[in-house]
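Appendix B, Record 12. Input sequence as logged:
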Amino acid sequence: MNTRQELLACVRSLPRESGRSIAPDVWVNFRAGWHGPVLARARNAGDVEYGYEPPTDSDLCLRYISRQKLIEFAPGDDHTMSALNAELVGNRRYPFISNPCGTFANVVYEAIRTAITGCQTSHATQAQARVRDELWAIEVVGRQGQDLKHVLYLWLVDREGADGHLGQGGYSAWLVHEVRHDLMAPDQPCRTRQSRVGGRRIEDPIPHSAMSVPVVGTVSWGAAYRA
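Logged structural output:
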């Protein structure tokens, strides 16, 4: 299992938060099909969930992006499509990825980062789910300053392109939901505090003193939690 210093040195910096989100009662329609989180596990004190840590059987310096298709919308999915589309009403700036000859199953982190970073300078678009569109969950572990984060991104993917001009295998994708959680390395000590609910005592991670962590070499990024 990776230490905090190892993770801060090997993972890449995250882009700013996209600000895109869907309501919890809409996310729950898709959560049952999600096999995650893959890159984190919950820390619990009794039945209180208070944080997340790396999984014991995974080296996050080698694998810190995970991709899973949650659903391909079919004609019988009117309810879930309508609920999602109601969250996407109006022209907004959605981080957007387009690839004329690839598949979203192979999307790389650099494409995600570029889409989010450039979103504020892009034109407003209207993302809407349609039959044969897909919803993908992308998990990423990265660092935000000196804090480790686990991020869940939900992408709405049109495999053929909204204008029908992309060739077979091409896609367009819109980021419709993002949620971030603190990721506590196993060597990060905790302190006990009094819970505000039920008087139970749970643990908080003790913050490390701020320090600069050099990034050693370059690492390829090819390899919700509850909202």
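Strands lie at 41-45, 48-53, 65-72, 96-99, 134-144, 147-158, 171-182, 190-194, 201-205.
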